Amino acid sequence: MTGEAPAAAAGPAAAPAPPDEAAALRRRVAKLERINAALMSQVERSMDQRGSAYSLFQTAITLEGQVRARTEELTALMRSLERSNQALTAAKEEAERANRSKTRFLTAASHDLLQPLNAARLSLSALGDLPVGREARGIVGQVERGLQTIEDLIKTLLDISKLDAGLIQPVPRPVRVADVLASVEASFGPLAARKGLRLGVRAGETWVASDVVLLQRILQNLVSNAVRYTAAGGVLVAARSRDGAVRIDVIDSGSGIPEADRELIFEEFHRGGRESVDGEIALGLGLSIVRRSALALGHALTLASRVGHGSRFSLHLPACAPEPPRPAPALALPTSLTGARIALIENDKAALEALARLFHGWDAHAFAARDHLSLVRLLPGSTWSPDVIVADYHLDGGACGLDTVAWLRAVHGHDIPAIVTTADHSAEVEAHVRATGCELVHKPIKPAQLRALLAHMLTQG
């Protein structure tokens, strides 16, 4: 029996490494792994740095382009703004020139319109002095009211134009409010009484810094409107002092002003659908003058109103110390002109004839002429001296009535009292007239005012 021989041994088996060598090998492998990781990290950082530098370079280029574009846009915008400013400046200058031109036109037109209006009023006054019937007197009164409305419209339009053009410069000074309100009460008290209204005035001893002419114009327009649009009750004008300021209220018990109309009422020719309760013609210009005058003075103007209950217009002014008292001028009251010798020079034929008729109706002797030479020929002689001179400022051919006044005074050796009439309301004309010691009367002439002034001058003379 054959038996299998045992398998031969495969060779000697690998001997396991000693423990110390295995640990050293593991440490070497770990070190190599760390070195490899560090190298990989360094490579990555290097790549990131190169990428960041490139990215920064690209960003810088992009920002530079954006800055250049924004700079170009800003430069273009600044050039456009400069052109707009130049256009606005040119438009402003053009508007100012147009305003000045409008004012000059209105001034000239007002002078030309007031001349025939002056003659018509003088003729009506002379007609009223004649013994005419009751019906004729009623017609005379209607015509006078119509002429007064035309005169008010012309003067108001001229005032608005001057305010817009900045030709009216306020002259602030201490003003006693009681004096201004007394004048307003005297002007509108009779009208309020005829309508059955109460007109109350409470002024106290308050003083404000303002231009007395503009302030009076503001209050007159406010009170005029209050009386016109109030049917029952009354109007109160009250001044109150508080914290260094003075508030003047014009309060009425009228119909009130709707919310929608409270800005519109200050525009020209706007009446807000309201009708005057007395049928009087309203021009719609009073509140426009009020706002412009208040702005020129720097006085705040406020409005409170309730429909069906009334309105309150408030003017806010700075308070000031009282002005030192001045002696009151003596006033002469006589009105008789009988026998007075009046030298009259007026280039407008209708006005000349109307004035001459008026003077003759007052029992005065009028020597009337349209120019200087005609008056010289008309006067009785060098020994004859007029008691008073009435001269128009603007005569034909550029002549001035003040030259005739100066000649008459020089011939007779003394300052003959003189009145200069004109439709020119400029400050230059007023200063020229005042400098010669003459009285100034604006056209249209109010006959009663002229008669009282003549009587006063003759009495003083």
TrEMBL record:
<feature type="domain" description="Response regulatory">
    <location>
        <begin position="341"/>
        <end position="458"/>
    </location>
</feature>
<keyword id="KW-0808">Transferase</keyword>
<dbReference type="InterPro" id="IPR011006">
    <property type="entry name" value="CheY-like_superfamily"/>
</dbReference>
<dbReference type="GO" id="GO:0016301">
    <property type="term" value="F:kinase activity"/>
</dbReference>
<dbReference type="Pfam" id="PF00072">
    <property type="entry name" value="Response_reg"/>
</dbReference>
<feature type="region of interest" description="Disordered">
    <location>
        <begin position="1"/>
        <end position="21"/>
    </location>
</feature>
<feature type="coiled-coil region">
    <location>
        <begin position="22"/>
        <end position="101"/>
    </location>
</feature>
<dbReference type="InterPro" id="IPR036890">
    <property type="entry name" value="HATPase_C_sf"/>
</dbReference>
<dbReference type="Pfam" id="PF02518">
    <property type="entry name" value="HATPase_c"/>
</dbReference>
<keyword id="KW-0175">Coiled coil</keyword>
<dbReference type="InterPro" id="IPR003661">
    <property type="entry name" value="HisK_dim/P_dom"/>
</dbReference>
<feature type="domain" description="Histidine kinase">
    <location>
        <begin position="108"/>
        <end position="321"/>
    </location>
</feature>
<dbReference type="InterPro" id="IPR005467">
    <property type="entry name" value="His_kinase_dom"/>
</dbReference>
<feature type="compositionally biased region" description="Low complexity">
    <location>
        <begin position="1"/>
        <end position="14"/>
    </location>
</feature>
<dbReference type="InterPro" id="IPR036097">
    <property type="entry name" value="HisK_dim/P_sf"/>
</dbReference>
<keyword id="KW-0418">Kinase</keyword>
<dbReference type="Pfam" id="PF00512">
    <property type="entry name" value="HisKA"/>
</dbReference>
<dbReference type="InterPro" id="IPR003594">
    <property type="entry name" value="HATPase_dom"/>
</dbReference>
<keyword id="KW-0597">Phosphoprotein</keyword>
<dbReference type="InterPro" id="IPR004358">
    <property type="entry name" value="Sig_transdc_His_kin-like_C"/>
</dbReference>
<feature type="modified residue" description="4-aspartylphosphate">
    <location>
        <position position="392"/>
    </location>
</feature>
<protein>
    <recommendedName>
        <fullName>histidine kinase</fullName>
        <ecNumber>2.7.13.3</ecNumber>
    </recommendedName>
</protein>
<dbReference type="InterPro" id="IPR001789">
    <property type="entry name" value="Sig_transdc_resp-reg_receiver"/>
</dbReference>
